[in-house]
Amino acid sequence: MFGAIVAGRAVQTNLQQIEPTKFVFELQEAASINHITVFLLPDTPFPDGYGATVYFSWPGKPFQLLGGLSNAKPSAIFKLGGMTAGGGAGITAGLGISVEPIGAVDAQVTTLKNSTAAGAGAGTAVGRPTPSAGELTTRIVKNLYNFLMGYAVDASAITPTEQFVPLRAFQEWHSKFSNKLANDASFLDRDQD
Question: What is the DSSP string of the chain?
């Protein structure tokens, strides 16, 4: 009855029926998904007066409403987010579809749109799992390192009026910081003078 396409991948038809009106697609390598299209298959319209709500779920998390489908709107593209999940290789997420009376579908989609417009954060973009403090810090430090490497110059190119910090000093700090983070990531939560 339904198909799904993750941008850059083949059409998914691995739909599992878990109840008479509820279906789930398993989405492999979910951390790399930015957009997904969900659609009714040709020649399989909803019965009169029915539509479907579409949901997304990370492992161990509840399903979040993305939007709806109907005979008048048989396909939709949903943005799942732009961030990658920390350690996200191999994560399998769920795309849920629930066939319901069209009035219930319209009411849920309207509520979703209103909450998005009000800035409640429940929109068609589904947040990625929050990385741990250690993962986030590692990403920030790597970004800073790459940024600083963009300014690396030969020592002879430094003018007497410029100050510089040898890259070796940053590398030593990074090594000590990484060890400290590995031993006790909670040190980031403490006030430091």
Answer: -EEEEETTSPEE---EEEETTEEEEEETTGGG--EEEEEEPTT-PPPTTEEEEEEEE-TTS--EEEEEE-SSS-EEEEE--SSPPTT-TT--EEEEEEEEEHHHHHHHHHHHHHHHHTT-S-SSSPPPPPPPHHHHHHHHHHHHHHHHHTT---GGG--TT-----HHHHHHHHHHHHHHHHH-GGGGGS---
Query: 48 is written with which tokens?
Result: 């009169």
Residue 21's pLDDT is 94
69 pLDDT more than 90: yes
> Helix crossing, 167-183 with 133-149: angle to 10°?
170
The one-letter amino acid at 4: A
- Tell me: the pLDDT tens digits for 101-119? 999 999 999 998 887 666 5
In what order do the strands lie in the sheet containing 93-101?
A: 16-19, 22-27, 93-101, 50-57, 64-69
Q: What is the pTM assigned to this prediction? A: 0.60
Which of the residue ranges 12-26, 29-43, 104-118 would you say has the lowest mean pLDDT?
104-118
